[in-house]
Predict the 3D structure of the following.
Amino acid sequence: MDAYHVVLVHFPIALWMTAALAILWRAVSDGPLAQAVDRALVPLLVLGLIAGLVAYTVGLMVWPWETLSSSPLGRNHMLVATWTVVYWTLLLLTRWLRGEAVWHGATRWIMAGLALLGSALLGVAGTLGGHLAGIYTEVSSALRLLGWEVYTTFYVPTFTLIAIGLAAIALAAFGLWGARQRT
């Protein structure tokens, strides 16, 4: 049954990576093609969420929690996979609830940054899942250079804490700047 999970994860990966490209395109362009791509963004993110939830559920059915939680690699994969699904859900809600407003002013660049961050999360989740399935990539070598040994380390690496801190500061600064721009 693990083959089902391996096949299913490719659907949210493809849909969310396409959504990331759509967000980046829309962030840099107001042209008719970018606006047409933006109209497809919410349905694309919804399909990605459905596919992601199906792949996540099947993954839990394939590998029991006791098995996943017994190794740092399994725990890291579950942690990052959970973050990825939640992250893309929040990105969907942001675009859906804020509508066209996300493309005005500095928020377009925030959306672009969020798309890049979501793509990175997706890449890490896929890399860890690939390791569980015996498929190794160079992403794990990059993670190792950043201080995260995927086979033995179960923690939030220092670089991640720094990235979260910097992102929080940047988002707060963008929010304050945007609020001042409106008044």
